[in-house]
Write a structure and sequence with these properties.
The protein has helices at about 5-35, 50-60, 65-70, 85-95, 145-160, 170-190, 190-220, 225-240, 245-260, and strands at about 40-45, 75-80, 100-105, 120-130, 135-145. By secondary structure, it is of the alpha+beta class. The chain has two domains: about 5-180, Beta Polymerase, domain 2, CATH 3.30.460.10; about 195-265, no CATH class. A five-stranded mixed sheet has the order 1-2-5-4-3. α7 (about 190-220) packs antiparallel against α8, α7 (about 190-220) runs parallel beside α9 (about 245-260) and α8 (about 225-240) packs antiparallel against α9. It is globular. The termini are far apart. The structure holds ligand 0O2. Ligand 0O2 binds next to α2 and α5.
Length: about 270
């Protein structure tokens, strides 16, 4: 196939990956804006390289005309979670969306691969708008924890280095590392609620500080500098006490002052 034709075929997949990444990043933002813990820590995406597509077609004897149906991961999105429990939450968020239809799932958490690979995969149908009209395509979403991702990334580079002929001592080390990753995820899950509490308070505090500063900035435009300086000094005094409840009270009072001046607090 000519390079130009490949570009045309892959173009909608590039759009799909970009849109999907934006949508998942937006989900993270929405959680944070509502002072909520986000089950998604980060998201990335890629379009499979032509050589990798060709390699898969050769390995699975897929004819060129069946490529788009049978190579399901031309568009790939990877969602990284902090805790194993988050993976299920993310999968159910995806299942509830109107713009993504789940075609199939592969649960390598319940059925760990021989290599030690753990991850949860979904193949979805997703529609993008192109010059020729809507195009429904497939995309693979891999959902895994940071620890699983660490292992998979290292193992993937070693697979590439040894090209399917990994020496037994490396396989053995990887297998031990995979066991250590399982223990690490379990340990993290055990202290999940403490970690989440800590992260939530820090998120709430930074959101409140952001709102207060925006409000002070807006008040500058409508009231005297002296008054705003007084508010600012009071904020700095309370901030220095590290007393979160006082900061919340100050935030509420500032909201009332801002309302009096018809200034939006956020
Ligand atoms: P890329 O794009 O470089 O990541 P397969 O026969 O495994 O190639 P299939 O049936 O589509 O293909 O299956 P699967 O198992 O869902 O795997 C698709 C992707 O999962 C792989 O993409 C990897 O990203 C990841 N994966 C699967 N198994 C392993 C594994 O043992 N180790 C690591 N590190 N990753 C794995 P590709 O095709 O490798 O390409």
């Amino acid at each position: 196939m000519e390079i130009q034709l490949w570009r045309n075929i892959l173009c909608p997949y590039e759009l799909a990956v970009r849109e999907l990444v934006v949508k998942f990043e937006h989900l993270i933002d929405e959680h944070h804006r509502h002072d909520m813990y986000s089950p998604i820590e980060s998201v990335s995406g890629r379009v499979k390289s032509v050589s990798s597509i060709l390699e898969k077609m050769q390995r699975k004897s897929i004819p060129l005309e069946r490529m788009e149906e049978e190579v399901e991961d031309i568009a790939g999105v990877r969602i990284i979670c902090q805790f194993e429990e988050d993976i299920e939450t993310v999968a159910s968020i995806i299942a509830g969306r109107q713009d993504m239809q789940i075609k199939s799932e592969k649960d390598y958490l319940k059925h760990i691969k021989q290599s030690g690979y753990r991850s949860y995969h979904l193949i979805i149908y997703y529609t993008v708008e192109t010059l020729e009209g809507p195009k429904r395509l497939q995309a693979e979403i891999q959902i895994r924890t940071m620890a699983m991702n660490f292992w998979a990334t290292i193992e993937h580079s070693l697979q590439y280095k040894y090209k399917g002929d990994m020496p037994p001592h490396v396989t053995d080390r990887l297998s031990k590392a995979a066991d250590a990753i399982i223990s690490l995820d379990q340990e993290m899950s055990a202290v999940r609620s403490e970690i989440m509490d800590a992260q939530n308070s820090s998120l709430m505090q930074s959101n409140i500080v952001r709102d207060i500063l925006t409000c002070i900035e807006n008040l500058y435009k409508v009231t005297s500098q002296r008054e705003v300086m007084k508010i600012q000094d009071e904020f700095l005094r309370i901030y220095a006490t590290k007393d979160f409840e006082q900061l919340q009270r100050f935030h509420r009072q500032l909201d009332i002052i801002a309302e009096g001046y018809h200034v939006q607090a956020v």
